[in-house]
Design goal:
Helices cover 53% and strands 9% of the residues. The chain is mainly α. The protein has a domain at 17-120: Winged helix-like DNA-binding domain superfamily/Winged helix DNA-binding domain (Arc Repressor Mutant, subunit A, Orthogonal Bundle). The protein has a three-stranded antiparallel β-sheet. The chain is globular and about 65 Å long.
Length: 151
């Protein structure tokens, strides 16, 4: 187990918090946390509720969330076997933020789609090879040492 010898800093490539951020930034993790906030769920229930997730990705994501302390897996000694997943207190402490994020996406979806269409339309109107509006134009001479690095 890696100990945190410094203050957590998600902007530092070496900080272990980056690994947590990477896990939580995945769409499947966010959707599963949101769904589990409503209560314990069996694997098949989660797969039905989270459209598009494969069995493999569901199990992989649940295992990662379990490993990081966000989800508990409860296996009941029954025949046939029954397994449920539920949020831990740590996962529950995150669920409000995840729900707010999901709500924001749903409320602003039309605005995002409008922006994407405008961007795509502008991109189609540019001549090939011209600078993209989201990137500044660069020149070879503007980058010191660029030619030297190529040699």
């Amino acid at each position: 187990m890696t100990s945190l010898s410094c203050r957590a800093d998600v902007f530092s490539a070496e900080c272990p918090s980056r690994r947590v951020l990477e896990l939580l930034a995945g769409k499947w993790a966010l959707l599963l946390i949101d769904e589990l906030a409503s209560g314990p769920r069996r694997t098949a229930e989660l797969r039905r509720r989270v459209g598009g997730i494969s069995e493999k990705m569901l199990i992989q994501t649940l295992r990662k969330l379990q490993r990081s302390g966000f989800v508990d897996r409860v296996a009941y000694p029954e025949v046939p076997p029954r397994v449920e997943y539920r949020l831990t207190p740590l996962g529950a402490s995150l669920s409000g933020t995840v729900r707010a994020f999901d709500d924001w996406v749903e409320r602003n979806l039309a605005r995002v789609q409008t922006a994407e269409r405008a961007f795509d339309s502008a991109a189609r109107g540019r001549p090939r090879g011209s600078a993209r509006p989201d990137r500044p134009a660069t020149r070879q001479a503007a980058r010191p040492g660029a030619r030297q690095a190529a040699k």
